[in-house]
Amino acid sequence: MRRREGEETVASRTITLNINGEERNVMVRNADTLLYTLRGKLGLSGSKPGCLNGDCGACTVNVDGWPMKSCLMLAVEAEGKKVMTIEGLRNAPIQQAFVKEFAFQCGYCTPGFIMNCHALLEQHPNADDKTIKEWLESNICRCTSYIEIEKAVKSVLRGHSGGS
Amino acid sequence: MLPFDFEYYRPETLKEAVERYQFLEHQGKQPTYFSGGTELITLGRINLAYADAVIDMKEIAECNMKEFNGDHLVLGSALSLTQIEEANPFPLLTSVASEVADHTARGKITLGGNICAQIFYREAVLPFLLADSQVIIVGPEGIRNVQINEIFQEHLRLKKGELLVQTVTDRRFIGAPFFAKKRRQQWDTGYPLITVAALKIGQEIRLAISGLCPFPFRSEEMEVYINRWGQSLEARIDGALSVLPKSILDDVEGSADYRIFVLRNLLMDALQALG
Amino acid sequence: MDVIGKSVIRKEAADKVTGRAKYTNDFQSIEMLSCKMVISPYGHAKIVNIDTSKAWKVPGVIAIIAGKRYPLTGEAIRDRPPIAVDKVRYHGEPVALVVAETPSQAKTAADLIKVQYELLPVVNSPAQAFQKDAPLVHERLGEYKLEADSYPVPGTNIATHYKIRKGNMEKGWSESETVVEASFSFAPSDHAAMETRCATAEIVPDGNIMITTSSQAPFMVKRLIADYFGEDMGKIIVRTPLVGGAYGGKASVQLEVLAYLASKEVGGRPVKLLNTREEDIITSACHIGLDATVKLGVDRSGKIRAAEIRYLWDGGAYSDKAVDVSRSGAVDCTGPYDVENLWCDSYCMYTNHPYAAPFRGFSHSELSFAIERTMDLLAQKLNMDPFELRYINAIQPGDTTPTRVKLNKSNVGNLRKCIEKVKELFKWEEGAIKEIDDRFIRVKGVSCSWKTSTIDTDAPSGVILTFNRDGSINLMSGVVEIGTGTKTILAQILAERMRMDVDNIHVRMEVDTQTTPEHWKTVASRGTFMGGRAVLRAAEDAINQLKEIAACALRAPKDDLEVANSRVFLRDDPSIGLHFKDICYGFKYPNGQTIGQQVIGRGSYILRHLTHLDPETGAGKPGPEWTVAAYGVEIEFDKRDYTYRLIKACTVVDVGNVMNEKAAEGQVMGAMSMGLAFAGRETFYFDELGRVLNPQLRTYRPLRYGENPEYLVGFVKTPQLDGPYGARGLGEHGLMGMPGALGNALSIASGVSLHHLPLIPELIWRAKEAVK
Ligand SMILES: Cc1cc2nc3c(=O)[nH]c(=O)nc-3n(C[C@H](O)[C@H](O)[C@H](O)COP(=O)(O)OP(=O)(O)OC[C@H]3O[C@@H](n4cnc5c(N)ncnc54)[C@H](O)[C@@H]3O)c2cc1C
Ligand code: FES
Ligand code: FES
């Protein structure tokens, strides 16, 4: 009678996900979220659960270059898409900027925030204040005042546009 | 963490989707259409939604349409709100949609999902109600094309197995002057306390509201009063407020009295903005 | 000073921006089982029956615990069954546990447990709890085991009553020319740390109980589990990795106990219990609510002559730490003002609400709202500048606190200087009110605060330093890294004392109670103070040992030696000396012979002279020092809609000394952000059944990016002689004045006195309607 995860049934199967540039085969339940799969099946624990409800943004990853709350996406929906998690981000300017501006304290919201900022910088390298606010409202940071995060993002933006 | 399992299908045609739905139902299953899927994922987690088979509509070409077809803007139901905002084919829609949830979530939430949502704000429907849009619906009995104002009564009155494919909006309404404002309990985060959208067609102002009642609506009775141009603003608004639906929300976002206070001021702003 | 004050990058920074930083829930193993709670859907109800039969049929279920009686738990009062029996006392209370192989199996089974309840009358506020005929939350209050300093009143809902009786009230009132009295209230709310609480437990065959937990108090977990269940303390090993925000909410011990019980039930197999956000908000401890009445009398000059204060704290269904919060509220009940004649009753009340944990500020942000609003009412009545009134009454060396501690230049900061600095930063001379047009108005509100940290009188902090062969140092302290950066600051203190490069100091981030020296709890802004003192002592100890070895090797008297740059050398000729790496494991002569030994520095610290409070008068020394601060909040108010925007928020705090500039500013700004969210939006909405209607971040809404004001931070530096390099506590103070200052600004702007939190537009509208 016992059914462990891992058996192929109508409700679960093996899929191939493109994560941080690598093809990974993984057995999932159709009902598994991308977040659960990343953390529980692929050992990528950088994306954090904070609400599993789409509210906090701690689980944010990039899917085809756009920010995505990985708790709002099924793993099966991610098939055929390029998923990038915080683990796939190496020495990105926004990471340095977060360190320099003290843009985190406990660090729990940080992977999600950075992935959102990273997508923003890629999609809108010259984002204005309104766009920055619109995007960054999606994540909660309970520790910092957001001013630090704003500074971090803007320091990278300025870098992009070559201004002061 | 969804506590139940389901089958997952990703049809590529409308026909396939509808047939799959019927087939699953026939088998005694509880299928559901899945567009952004955020409701099944978030409400399923707390036992407020359930399905044992999911039909994901994101691969269906018609549901991803985003183009002008002659004088009509066709928007597929599986477009994410972010896609619509970025393309901005319908400024009033952009304005309303960009206040739903948050930017990242809107990358997942879809137009059709928001219009058909169980969570009763369904803000994205407001512009279509104002623009007398058509909706394209497909179901076991084939495709039909219906006036949204006929079929959207509190919610989209779909028959079992039917799904919303597209909205079709006349270009005439797309460039018309509009007003849209979402007021929340506090600051810039959260569900609407009241969202008002208004569109001015010639000398006629149209009005649609979410957050006031447990459903969004456009009220022609209110519009009658609002358009009594000879009268003072106050009188027009008083008139409109005298014909509100009965079921005013009274909940943690705000009391019924307060909602009416907020609505009154928003109507004032709308009328002033649209002259 | 070379390192102190510098914005040294936190030691764990690289881990945190790459996703490598590990929190409790990030540790997962294949054999780890999942535990899921069944929680009460009601505020107060009798448990009639629990049917687990369907749940047992779910594949993967290994154990179900329900209806089992365990020893009562709790801190000041042992009043809480770990899993409810007989009745439930709050919405969210654990009623049963399921252990299964996977999280979804556990959840499926938990959903199938059918509990039958019979509703009981609900106590929905502390004021209601205080009424004579109120339903009782605890019928057997007289039978509970107590700690010193808690005074429950059986037959009532009073978990504890603290009294402050100071001076002569009759005299005070007779000297008062102007008197104001006002009442204030707000419901409980939440800490909402982004990491929900999580605990894992495993009982290995040798009997060791291995617990990993997202806690501010791993050492307390060890002590309490030993105490509750009669386990050997040494066999309980509690590990705490990085913690994803805590703010006081992770000082309560709860999930650890449940995980331990669950593991025990499955023969010691490893079990994980992770709160969902909903559980984290209602099942685990929350932020306390308050009903307060404040009466102040002043003489002609504006000097306070008398104060009568009543605080009814909403401790919720179980007293946990709420007793201590109520005590702390009594200790600093007046706010930072000199009050000679004082009468205060601070009651910790039982209600059918989620129970309260400490919250950043530990009673002070809450009581400050009541006190600072009353101060503004007083200023208004006296027609006096609100800062002037505060300045006149500001607590000073020579004054005594409510519990009669005599203040001196070291144990209290300089409030007047803080006020002056806020006035400057906040451009007070430009006036408090600026009309923008006939609809919009900009208004500044102000407030002040003070706080001592009321911690256990014997609370310890310890540090161990070991050396690596390259002469670098490992620093081990029981302080938990909850985001405050304290471990980096400890490294800075060590670097400063050793006059070495902070990069050569390695900090152990994780705490485990078997190998890390105890730090009581990482609460009350005590990490830097106590941990810092322990670091200094450990450094002293290590330096002494290094010098001893070097003295021998260099054939020089010890007191001719100095330490800097990882070397011990001759004071008058620094070129003659030895690098740490050559002496930290003894000094080896060319022939192999070795003198000395491995250097291990140890240091520990206990706050001196703290005492219990006299039960009748409150007299006693509750804490080591008082940090003071002054605040301003500027808003832009819409007189038509009663909506507002936050424009500026300002805090000036007397920190003694700034240890890390950017970290300090970050702490103060982050605290202001949290304070404004608490003041402006966050609260639990209860229905008549005592249910929390908004237990999700969709409906319980912390501040978001862009809703924040501009922040201004200033520091006054009156050294605390006992503090490491003069430092005082800092982590909480930015928060404490926000509710008062925001309430004052909005009361001025709207023209009605506001007495409740959160300060949402509807509240202002309602107050306006009431006076129409
Ligand atoms: C973080 C967050 C914040 C939110 N805030 C707001 C807000 O401020 N305002 C607001 O209005 N809403 C808000 N919501 C609710 C949200 O808009 C709806 O839940 C969402 O729009 C559903 O969109 P979806 O594409 O994910 O729909 P789905 O979850 O895919 O579908 C929702 C429902 O509609 C049905 N359905 C979907 N598409 C079709 C179709 N084409 N034809 C027929 N039936 C269909 C589904 O079967 C399901 O029952 C919020 C949601 C989240 C996650
Ligand atoms: S966990 Fe995904 S948004 Fe909170
Ligand atoms: S750093 Fe703690 S939540 Fe953002």
Describe the structure.
The complex is a heterotrimer of chains A (164), B (275) and C (772). In chain A, strands 2-1-5-3-4 form a five-stranded mixed beta sheet, with helices on both faces. Chain A is an alpha+beta fold and 164 residues long. Helix content of chain A is 32%, strand content 16%. The mean pLDDT of chain A is 93. In chain A, helix 2 (93-100) packs across helix 5 (147-161). Chain A has two domains: 2-86, Beta-grasp domain (Ubiquitin-like (UB roll), Roll), CATH 3.10.20; 91-159, Orthogonal Bundle (DNA polymerase, domain 1), CATH 1.10.150.120. Chain A is built from five helices and five strands. Chain A has helices at residues 34-41, 93-100, 110-123, 129-136, 147-161; strands spanning 12-19, 22-29, 60-63, 66-69, 82-84. With 275 residues, chain B is an alpha+beta fold. Chain B folds into three domains: 7-56; 61-173, Uridine Diphospho-n-acetylenolpyruvylglucosamine Reductase, domain 3, CATH 3.30.465.10; 177-274, CO dehydrogenase flavoprotein, C-terminal domain (Enolase-like, domain 1), CATH 3.30.390. Chain B is 33% helix and 26% strand. Chain B contains twelve helices and 14 strands. In chain B, strand 6 and strand 7 form a beta hairpin. The longest helix of chain B is centred in the C-terminal third of the chain and has 19 residues, at 256-274. The mean pLDDT of chain B is 97. With 772 residues, chain C is α+β, with helices and mostly antiparallel strands. Among the domains of chain C are: 362-454 and 621-771, Aldehyde oxidase/xanthine dehydrogenase, molybdopterin binding domain (Aldehyde Oxidoreductase, domain 4), CATH 3.30.365.10; 458-606, Aldehyde Oxidoreductase, domain 4 (2-Layer Sandwich). Helices cover 26% and strands 26% of the residues of chain C. Chain C is built from 19 helices and 32 strands. In chain C, the strands form eight sheets. In chain C, strands 3-5-1-12-9-10-11-23 form an eight-stranded mixed beta sheet, sandwiched between helices. A five-stranded mixed beta sheet of chain C has the order 7-16-15-14-8. The mean pLDDT of chain C is 95. The complex binds flavin-adenine dinucleotide and FE2/S2 (inorganic) cluster (2 copies). The site of flavin-adenine dinucleotide has 31 residues of chain B, from strand 2, helix 2, helix 6 and strand 10. One FE2/S2 (inorganic) cluster binds next to loops of chain A.
